[in-house]
Design brief:
It is built from 3 helices and 6 strands; from the N terminus they run ααββαββββ. The protein has a 6-stranded mixed β-sheet, with helices on one face. It has a single domain, classed as Roll (Nuclear Transport Factor 2, Chain: A). The chain is of the alpha+beta class and about 120 residues long. InterPro entries: NTF2-like_dom_sf, SnoaL-like. It holds the Pfam family SnoaL_2. This is Ketosteroid isomerase-like protein. It comes from Pseudonocardia parietis.
């Protein structure tokens, strides 16, 4: 009998990232632990419900994405990318995930909130 395959931290995070950036919040959140913490600019999102609300608020604004880099070890993954929205395609974002037992338990999210503010009215 063979042991069940374990998903690597990188595979978990890339699956999560592909899901939310394509608008599939349910799939993304299926990879997040109930007690996960997301340290976002200006607030700590504690628990899956708070994390979901934050992600669901931003995902519809996303029009594309340019990946810059990724780094991973057994339990940590860093993604560096440029989210595309109506206001910017060049503002950088970085996320540092901690993954335990195939689920994301912590995310340190770094981005410039002002770059994603609504465009100035003409």
């Amino acid at each position: 009998m063979t042991a069940p395959s374990r998903t690597s931290a990188l595979e978990t995070v890339l699956d999560y990232h592909r899901a939310w950036t394509s608008g599939d919040i349910d799939r993304a959140m299926s990879l997040v632990a109930e007690n996960a913490v997301c340290h976002a600019p200006g607030e700590d999102l504690v628990g899956k419900d708070a994390y979901r609300a934050f992600l669901a608020g931003f995902a519809p604004l996303l029009t594309g994405l340019t990946e810059v880099a990724r780094l991973a070890d057994d339990h940590h993954v860093m993604l560096f990318y440029h989210p595309h929205t109506a206001t910017t395609t060049t503002a950088p974002a970085a996320e540092c995930f901690t993954v335990e037992d195939g689920t994301i338990v912590k995310n340190l999210l770094v981005f410039d909130r002002l770059s994603f503010a609504p465009p100035p009215e003409s």
